[in-house]
Amino acid sequence: MTMPSRDLHSQHSVLCADAVRSSTALLHQEVERIMGLPGSIETMADYRRWLVRFFGIYQPLEHLLRGFAGWAATGVPIHQMGHTAALLKDLKVLEFDPDDIELASQNALPVIETFGQAFGALYVLEGSKLGGRYILRDLSNRLGREIEGMDAFLT
After folding, report:
1. What one-character-per-residue DSSP string does the chain give?
2. Rounded to an integer, what distance in angstroms lies between the CA atom of residue 126 and that of residue 154?
3. What confidence tens digit (pLDDT) does each residue in 73-87 have?
4. CA distance 119 to 75
5. For the chain, what percent of residues have pLDDT higher than 70?
6. Backbone phi, then psi, for 128, in 5-degree steps?
């Protein structure tokens, strides 16, 4: 009996995701250690600073990723990426003008020269949403209701 090709594709996708997850686990732990998240956010002022930093990185990075051809063939709706939009929503609630935020320079962004690298970068950005939920849970315990309505980036 042969398996339908969709089942094989599904199994292959799961195996690939598992391989990427396990091979990057130590890197994720190192990023958490270096950035000090979520423990370094103790006040709303800390939270605001982190949102500003994230906007300064995500906005130019998302712009860079959208510039690659090939997204349509993958079915990935790259123009609907919502990280920057979510950050803008949170910053607006905090009454922060995004025009006042210094954006990361091209030299500060990861080197992304091929569509494969762009796809990998998108994978990391989208995967960070899972970490955002963990951070939000921690911040909600620490900051309570104070964070309500300004957590779009973390959800």
Report:
1. -PPPHHHHHHHHHHHHHHHHHHHHHHHHHHHHHHHTTTTT--SHHHHHHHHHHHHHHHHHHHHHHHTSTTHHHHT--GGG--HHHHHHHHHHHTT--GGGSPPPPGGGSPP--SHHHHHHHHHHHHHHHHHHHHHHHHHHHHHGGGGTTS-TTT-
2. 11
3. 988 888 888 899 999
4. 12
5. 81
6. -65, -20
Neighbour tally for 154: CB within 10 Å: 24
Tens-place pLDDT, residues 87-111: 999 999 998 898 999 999 988 888 9
> What are the structure tokens assigned to 90, written together?
């949170």
Residue 2, pLDDT above cutoff 60: no
Residue corresponding to tokens 């042969």: 2
Q: Are 47 and 143 in contact (CB under 8 A)?
A: yes
pTM: 0.78
> Residue 65: is it exposed, middle or buried by C-beta count within 10 angstroms (0-12/13-18/19+)?
buried
Beta strands per DSSP E along 6-119: none
Percentage, residues of the chain above pLDDT 90: 34
User: Which pair of tokens denotes residue 88?
Assistant: 């803008």
